Amino acid sequence: MAKHGVAFILTLALVLGVLAVTPKVVQSIGVCYGVNGNNLPSPSDVVKLYQSKGIDSMRIYFPRSDILQALTGSNIALTMGVANENLSAFASDPSAVANWVKQNVQAYPGVNFRYIAVGNEVESGNTQNVLPAMQNMNSALSAAGLSNIKVSVSVSQKGVLADRYPPSNGTFSPEATSYMTPIAKYLASTGAPLMANVYPYFAYVDKQDQIDIKYALFTSPGTVVQDGGNAYQNLFDASVDTFYSALESAGAGSVPIVVSESGWPSAGGTAASASNAQTYNQNLIKHVGQGTPKRAGRIETYIFAMFNENDKRGDETERHFGLFNPDQSPAYTINF
Ligand SMILES: *[C@@H]1O[C@H](CO)[C@@H](O)[C@H](O)[C@H]1NC(C)=O
Ligand SMILES: *[C@@H]1O[C@H](CO)[C@@H](O)[C@H](O)[C@H]1NC(C)=O
């Protein structure tokens, strides 16, 4: 009896312990740390800010020794990019990749590397380099005993998807199919995800006559798009599931999607306000635990971005995607 009692209490404690930690795991979110600003905090202050907000994953776009140093011992899971300008060298020269791994990965055993993104929104003329560079990266990591780090590439909706509707009709575009189909099949063989930058904001701005902003902001009261048996109440899910359909049509339906960027600007253009950015990002944080109609379960997601970056080029909105101002004050209130 007594023995059973102890076992029961231990089991109960374990069950309660698991229940107690589950919500935090479900809600965890990553944030992209872009560095195109001349007034940003030091990397060690940035790491402290991530930790104080409970942000447990970070994406950076290329290696930087001061950032890697600051992350040492933090346990923040890191997605690190290979810069697009390095892809052609990395496609043709395995030793350049091995050196990169040595200098930027092996040199930081206290950093919790999760993914290497071999390129971000790679443009035509360079896309043929992505797959061989990914293969060289997997070989270099494996030779270094680091094959637990998954190798992927980060792509945009406009860059690789055909403009097709509804989500079940998604395919890669005719221009992207020639390189995305082999990449998708390769990811299926390595068990790595495809990293997708998903912006309902830009889809809404491009098609304001067809898209209700509520569908983009996760505030529609009910189903907006019925696609066979799948009911869509927000554009984020529709966009992620369009990627899943494209992977399926490429014969790589087993590849999971990681959302490597998503966000909403707080100033600088159409529908860009602190209120809309707060609504989008807070709802995104609440939503990612649920998965999409096509794929239940948590969608690993990285918000773009940690800071407003005053040196970013392009449209005015590009400089206003930050959750925080450079002085570390919140751009608007978000609960992580
Ligand atoms: C990557 O590209 C940058 C910019 O062109 C260059 O300075 C750097 O040497 C390259 N790194 C490697 C490892 O090829
Ligand atoms: C799928 O997309 C194509 C191209 O836009 C379109 O012609 C076709 O009608 C779509 N299929 C469905 C079922 O909507």
Topology summary:
Layout: H1 2-27, E1 30-32, H2 43-53, E2 57-60, H3 65-71, E3 77-82, H4 87-92, H5 94-106, E4 112-120, H6 130-143, E5 150-156, H7 157-160, H8 174-190, E6 194-197, H9 200-206, H10 213-216, E7 225-227, E8 230-232, H11 235-249, E9 257-262, H12 274-287, E10 301-303
Parallel strand pairs: 1-2, 1-10, 2-3, 3-4, 4-5, 5-6, 6-9, 9-10
Antiparallel strand pairs: 7-8
Helix pairs in contact: 5-6
The structure holds 2-acetamido-2-deoxy-beta-D-glucopyranose (NAG) (2 copies).
Residues 164, 169 line the site of one 2-acetamido-2-deoxy-beta-D-glucopyranose.
Task: Outline the structure in words.
- With 336 residues, the chain is α/β, with parallel strands linked by helices.
- It has one domain: Alpha-Beta Barrel (TIM Barrel), CATH 3.20.20.80.
- The strands form 2 sheets. The protein has an 8-stranded parallel β-barrel with strand order 1-2-3-4-5-6-9-10. It has a two-stranded antiparallel ribbon with strand order 7-8.
- The N terminus is likely disordered.
- Bound molecules: 2-acetamido-2-deoxy-beta-D-glucopyranose (2 copies).
- One 2-acetamido-2-deoxy-beta-D-glucopyranose (NAG) binds next to helix 5.
- The site of one 2-acetamido-2-deoxy-beta-D-glucopyranose has 2 residues, from loops.
- InterPro entries: GH, Glyco_hydro_17, Glyco_hydro_17_plant.
- Pfam families: Glyco_hydro_17.
Question: What descriptive keywords fit this protein?
Answer:
336 residues, alpha/beta, TIM Barrel, eight-stranded parallel barrel, 14% strand, disordered N terminus, binds 2-acetamido-2-deoxy-beta-D-glucopyranose, GH, glycosidase, hydrolase, signal
